[in-house]
């Protein structure tokens, strides 16, 4: 059974289960607008310590660093247009391989060259994140769904959700927090230099 979450809600993913690997799938559509440039939304993951900061650049997974050095987090690649139905970008997480210093994995979506292209999340619709259990099957068993809604306007980056460790198990937190300064703002907030 899939758990449908709203912003701010949390759910346990691994407590009392044998779940060791999940697929975090994100998708979106773009509204019609007068611009000539395609929308290129990018999913990124920050493998953060307990203080919410990453230890270094290696703990930042994105289209130019698709696999964390530990193998715990793997981005399947950049979708340059987001066209079509279903998942637009996917990141796999293997909980058994997550380094000891990592307490949370934050997932964010940014708009590539948002300022130059004059684009923002007010032009994005039907955005969602879904977590599937892929421990025993590549097809996956849907567990959690979080629809971000249409609450954004000028934002060029959104922290969608996070997976975090609590008392030895991993939980999902539906965040949906917008940033008006896109990837640069996110990177800085997670402790990296721009």
Overall description:
By secondary structure, the protein is mainly β. The protein has a single domain, classed as Lipoxygenase-1, CATH 2.60.60. The protein contains two helices and twelve strands, in the order ββββββββαββββα. The protein has a six-stranded mixed sheet with strand order 1-10-9-3-7-6, with no helix packed on it. The chain has a six-stranded antiparallel sheet with strand order 2-12-11-8-4-5. A hairpin with a 2-residue loop joins strand 11 (157-166) and strand 12. The longest helix has 8 residues, at 182-189. The chain is globular, with a radius of gyration of 16 Å. The relative contact order is 0.26. The mean pLDDT is 90.
Q: How would you describe the oligomerization state of the chains in this entry?
A: single chain
Distance between the termini: 41 Å
Number of domains: 1
Mean pLDDT figure: 90
- What would you report as the Rg, rounded to the nearest angstrom? 16 Å
Shape: globular
Beta content: 35-45%
Give a short overview.
By secondary structure, the chain is mostly beta strands. It is built from 2 helices and 12 strands, in the order ββββββββαββββα.
